[in-house]
Task: structure prediction
Amino acid sequence: MIRVLLADDENLIRSALAQMLDLEDDIEVVAQAANGADALAAARATAPDVAVLDLQLPDLDGITVAKQLAGIIPGCGCMIVTSHGRPGYLKRALASGVRGFLPKTTSAATLAQVVRIVHSGGRHVDPELAAEAIAAGDSPLTPREADVLEAAVGGAPVEDIARRVNLSPGTVRNYLSSAVAKLGAANRHEAAATARRMGWI
Result:
């Protein structure tokens, strides 16, 4: 029996996924969580074989939960099921050891099959998402540029961004200018929107 942990902050989706997986003879949902902290606590309590994680959780994102799970339960295979299948997220997930990456539009049969693949040590990435990630290429942003651009989402003033990322306002302006140039954007708002759409921040 493959023991599964489900983490999704949307109760309806989490319940539906649990019901679908519980219909399978060889899969049992042993724990459910609505956020990353609860998912980690549930994993410690139940030692699941596979964790099915939403990418966007209220406290920690699914990739961060997957990284931490690898330290807590090394044998637990992690997979992401998301409605945010952006190229940057896919690449970050795979680099973090996630072995399955699916859109929430996937069928119940495919979901169950990928749980089995991940449990057996294999990998599965939705082919369409994989093609988009390859076409998009790698992020041109340095980690610091990405941090500054992420802090700029929502139109925060440079002084606020500087406080948030512990840099001087002048340094923040330099990073923002560099990010705008690399992304071919008209301004930092457009650069942030582009980076977010690609999953680079």
